[in-house]
Design goal:
Blueprint (H helix, E strand, L loop, with lengths): L2 H16 L17 H14 L3 H49 L3
Helix pairs in contact: 1-2, 1-3, 2-3
């Protein structure tokens, strides 16, 4: 399987997951320049999926934005986990002392 076919397959998966919102939202027009190879992949994906070229591009952008937002959320959670671990480690000597003084 060629790299182009693999990329087209990935793009088709993205378009399927994010491509259904086209009719619901207001639209604007922009003009962009893309590499010819990418344009060919987008057009091919659009034809295979039954979506418009705009819908395929919108789906790819939505997927990219969602991935970036998830990465930011994951990083924030990781930072919070590290902070919680620091607090737990700082409290450990206090908890150890208190537990050693408890009469069981």
């Amino acid at each position: 399987m060629s790299e182009t076919t693999i990329k087209r397959g990935r793009l088709a998966e993205v378009a399927a997951a994010y491509g259904g919102d086209e009719a619901r939202a207001p639209h604007g027009k922009i003009s962009i320049s893309l590499p010819s190879e990418l344009i060919d992949q987008i057009r091919s994906t659009a034809a295979e999926s039954g979506l418009s070229v705009s819908a395929v591009i919108a789906a790819a952008l939505r997927s990219t934005i969602a991935s970036a937002e998830q990465a930011n959320l994951d990083a924030a959670l990781e930072a919070q986990n590290e902070e919680n671990l620091d607090w737990a480690n700082a409290y450990l000597p206090i908890a150890t002392r208190l537990l050693s003084e408890v009469e069981w």
